[in-house]
Amino acid sequence: MKTYDFIGIGIGPFNLSIAALAEGLDGFSTLFLESKPQFSWHPGMMVPDCYMQTSFLKDLVSAVEPTNRHSFLNYLVQRKKFYRFLTTEQRTVSREEFADYLCWAAANLNNLAFSQQVQEVSYNEQAGVFEVVTQRDRFQARHVCLGIGKAINLPACVNEQSDRCFHASEMMMRTPSLAGKRVTVVGGGQSGADLFLNIFRGEWGQPATLNWVSRRNNYNALDEAAFANEYFTPEYLDSFATLKEEVREKMLAEQKMTSDGITTESLLAIYRAMYHRFEVLREQPWAHLLPSRSVTRVTAQDNAQRLTLRHHLDDGEETLETDIVIFATGYRPAHPAFLAPLAHRLHLTRDEEFQVNTDFSVQWNGPHSNQLFAVNAGMHSLGIAEPQLSLMAWRAARIINRAHPDAPFELSTTPGVIHWRSEPSRDLHQVSQPLKTTQF
């Protein structure tokens, strides 16, 4: 078995970022394993006219190494569309274009291995390495990074998926015919908004009726204010990690709309589309917005679904007959079976989640010289930015700095504009010496 310095399990954007930054490091061997036969990024969610919520400059590498060949700007140049792109004056890019960028980067990397289904990860005490077993091979690594993503989240009342009841992540793979159907979208975030608008416009045929159910009390806008974006900075992540657990939980709830809200552009597009159909064209309203409701029961009928809804504000119960129901209800943490040999060595939270350090290593009772890292698994520890693309390149560099003996990336920043934590030893009126923004 060849021993690698670093093995990543799962090739999504986060591990792809690590692979891109690690490629140019001499003497640092890396390998990234993926069960799928080729790279793909949420193929079932590539619905038309949907845009990213983060800037294209927050790509795989630019925040750390802008001259890296895997930058989005180099992608534009290599695809011969640099000038056309500039003329569009886009602040963000479509999901389709960002997915194409990721596929382009993956195709140019030589440290990726596909069709490798990881079956077991264990630790060899004698050799001082992790052992990673797939259906085809066996590998050794000094460090391992989990980047398998999350599992789909469905209400407990959904027993099985079908062509009439499924998660939004499968929309483009199922491509159902919605013409003349009663359709219900459940979930009040960006994915729910994107689906509602496309269905309203007849992307899969003109539905007879369209309902949009959300647990939230309204269809809330994404908080994109300048100071809200300070949550998506390395300084804030470090500061957040030092808070007490109950304070972190409170802050995450307060900051939810900075990541889970709906873009103003999408909300306006939906409102204008409904205004045009029902006020200008004077159609009898066939689309209905139903906030403050949870789906408590799904009953399959001959060719339809009966949904039982509970209203949060008055505890009323409603029933809704629909032909097709699509759950845009997000994702939940995944607990891979291949970690079973290490389960007794991992330190978990009371919610059975990884305890993740600020260098994205997982707390375990093994030697300090071998680390198990996890990406998109530590929002409870590190804050609202942890599962987002905003800090992708910085996160990748920080992980490499921990795994590499020479910490090759310089990640210091200028002081932030907000002083997040108290510093009682300093006089706030003494402005001649700038305050530090983080405490360690």
Q: What are the SSEs and their pairings?
A:
Elements: E1 3-9, H1 13-22, E2 30-33, H2 72-78, H3 82-88, H4 95-108, E3 112-113, E4 118-124, E5 129-134, E6 138-146, E7 151-152, E8 165-167, H5 171-174, E9 182-186, H6 190-200, E10 209-213, H7 234-241, H8 245-254, H9 257-260, H10 264-280, E11 287-290, E12 293-300, E13 305-311, E14 317-322, E15 324-327, E16 331-332, E17 371-374, H11 379-382, H12 392-403
Parallel strand pairs: 1-2, 1-6, 2-3, 6-17, 8-15, 9-10, 9-15, 10-11
Antiparallel strand pairs: 4-5, 5-6, 7-16, 12-13, 13-14
Helix pairs in contact: 1-12, 6-10
Explain this structure to me?
The chain is built from 12 helices and 17 strands. Residues 431-440 have low confidence and may be disordered. The protein starts with a strand and ends in a 37-residue tail after the last helix. With 440 residues, it is an alpha/beta fold. It folds into 2 domains: 3-150 and 333-403, 3-Layer(bba) Sandwich (FAD/NAD(P)-binding domain), CATH 3.50.50; 154-222 and 261-327, FAD/NAD(P)-binding domain.
From the alpha carbons, calculate the radius of gyration and give it in angstroms.
Answer: 23 Å
Helix/strand order: EHEHHHEEEEEEHEHEHHHHEEEEEEEHH
Can you say what the CATH homologous superfamily of the largest domain is? FAD/NAD(P)-binding domain
Helix content: 10-25%
Q: Give the second-level CATH assignment, the architecture of the largest domain.
A: 3-Layer(bba) Sandwich
- The CATH C-level name of the largest domain is Alpha Beta
Uncertain residue ranges: 431-440
User: What is the end-to-end distance?
Assistant: 39 Å
Pfam family, one: Lys_Orn_oxgnase
Cofactor: FAD
GO molecular function: monooxygenase activity
Family: Belongs to the lysine N(6)-hydroxylase/L-ornithine N(5)-oxygenase family.
